[in-house]
Amino acid sequence: MKFSRKLRKAFSAEPLASALEHLSRALHPVNKRRLLDDIDWLQFRDLRHKFPYRPGSPQINRFEDIVYWIDINVERAQDLWLDRAPPLRILDLGCGAGYFLYVCKYFGHHVLGFDIDNEPLFRATTELLDVPRVIGRIERQNPLPDFGNKFDLVTAHRICFHRIGKVRDGLEWSPADWKFFLDDVRANLLTENGRLLLDFNPRPDGSSFFTPELRRFFQSQGARIFRSKALLGKNPNTRPRFRRSFNKIQQRQKKADDPINL
């Protein structure tokens, strides 16, 4: 099974796209040392004394590895061209410890997180990183709250809010549930040129989240699918390209700043 997936991957366009992704990062290096220098390391080390390792919770325990998560989230931001974009309003659903938004804030963007508040370590980390967040839960067939703003970019990484019950139960949102979620985000959270990035975990057997049914559904909604990610725009009839949308935002901001248009 794994061999067949590797074989399909080798003969797809994915290796070329991945190589271009790596090349783009290399051509636009980010000084990660400056990101790390702004962190209060003494306070972060103190978090481990306040919140000891929890047996059976490796996913939560590993979020104290600042260097690793800064590296991961710089790559996430670069892959979205956020290191080269004008200031954007960014909402991160399931923001966790807040590392992605911390990196976005470093690049000059206006950020907000949304997550449940049942992990004291995440609460303390977002406070230390000065990442604002709204507390709440994403429920199927229920609209997201009014955040008082619309956003140029809405993201969700390592998504698990679509699961119903425990992972081993194998129950998750249906295409109808995803349609409700996408319609809500498009109508109430995205600006005219806004984009939604969904980044999914692999399934327990290592296969892609995108089953044939889900791949067809997301593509019918205008998603551009690459590896574990689905990128969608406000208009389901168009497939988004982030570089083009950034140019539009720059033009809109320039027009707003033009004295003739005041």
Description:
The protein is α/β, with parallel strands linked by helices. It folds into 2 domains: 1-30; 32-261, Vaccinia Virus protein VP39 (Rossmann fold, 3-Layer(aba) Sandwich). The chain has helices at 2-10, 14-27, 32-37, 41-50, 58-61, 66-79, 99-106, 120-128, 175-188, 212-220, 242-257, and strands spanning 89-93, 110-115, 133-135, 151-159, 190-200, 224-226, 229-233. The longest helix has 16 residues, at 242-257. 25% of the residues are buried.
Topology summary:
Layout: H1 2-10, H2 14-27, H3 32-37, H4 41-50, H5 58-61, H6 66-79, E1 89-93, H7 99-106, E2 110-115, H8 120-128, E3 133-135, E4 151-159, H9 175-188, E5 190-200, H10 212-220, E6 224-226, E7 229-233, H11 242-257
Parallel strand pairs: 1-2, 1-4, 2-3, 4-5
Antiparallel strand pairs: 5-7, 6-7
The assigned CATH architecture of the largest domain is 3-Layer(aba) Sandwich
In total, the number of domains comes to 2
Oligomeric state as shown: single chain
User: If strands are numbered along the chain, what order do they take across the biggest sheet?
Assistant: 3-2-1-4-5-7-6
- Taking all Cα atoms into account, the compactness measure Rg is 19 Å
Beta content comes to 15-25%
CATH homologous superfamily annotation of the largest domain:
Vaccinia Virus protein VP39
Count of distinct strands: 7
The SSE order reads HHHHHHEHEHEEHEHEEH
What is the percent of helical residues?
Answer: 40-55%
Shape, principal axes of CA atoms? globular
Spans of at least 5 consecutive residues whose pLDDT stays below 50 are 255-262
The top level CATH class name of the largest domain = Alpha Beta
Total helices: the number is 11
Intertermini distance:
61 Å
Q: Largest sheet, if any?
A: 7 strands, mixed
Mean pLDDT: 83
CATH domain topology of the largest domain? Rossmann fold
